[in-house]
Predict the structure.
Amino acid sequence: MVSASSLLLPSSMRDLASCIGDGAVRVACASPASTLTSSSGGGSGTSGSASTLSVTVSYRATLLSSGAPSPPPLLLRLTWAHSSVGPTLSFSPSAAGPSVLLRRRRGTRSVSLAGGGGGETETEAESPVFALFWDLTAARYDPGAYPEPLYGYYFVAVAGAEVVLAVGDQAAEFVKAKFEGQISRARCLAVARRERVVVADPAAMHTARVRFAEGGPEHEVSVGCATSSGPGGGEELWVSVDGKRAVQARRLRWNFRGNQTVFVDGAPVDVMWDLYGWWFRDPPGCAVVMLRARSALESRLWLEEEGAAPGFSLVVQAFKAPP
């Protein structure tokens, strides 16, 4: 099974990740005692913020239904985006499948994992059908036009007589009112998050809030670019967590691809960046920065099999203009 986080990445970043991890590039490991443990720290050094185009979150749902063999986990995606009529929500019942746009602010809908037309094969006939329930009529959004609601909403997906996804501050109340005592709730975990942003100001900063481990604390991750004041000048990329600088890469026109390992809550997090498209493509492509949590037992930066790479991934794709 291909990992959800790898499907969120451009091919160039996947190629980069496959080259790292087997000793092709030396990994710089920072000490847990000196990195990402303080919520205080220096300022961002930026003068603006990036405009978020869309946010895609991938979830892995493990069904609790008894039976042999056990069904494989479901990989589901929710995408929050901007449109001419306001924020939109799309759902995909698989990691690689097309998304279904939920046009109404409130409603219900059935979606098949198999999809497509024509006659059903045996595999397609056994594919789950998702019942979707959502209500965004009272949703409240970030004043900075972030497309993902802050509160006042719910999205719930049901498949195989189990609640496989429940998102939003009102989701628990809806599930209790509609399904309490009738169906079970699958174990669901966010495994990847991709944020696509437009950076009009070269000194802009983008900030995301994520949890790198299930049940772990929420962290504020900021990514920015600035003109270096050090020897040689030039541009520099930096990544900070909870206000403390974690990664700083200088001379980006030479070091447009790279990686570093830092520690968050005592666990390793791999930071990889690919700025080739940003600097050298015409028209310009995107800059990609990825943070991926991994087990201390992993010896590679990247593992294609999701079962072997369960860590959460944050991917930031920055464009100079809307794609």
About this structure: The chain has a mean pLDDT of 78. The longest helix spans residues 11-19.
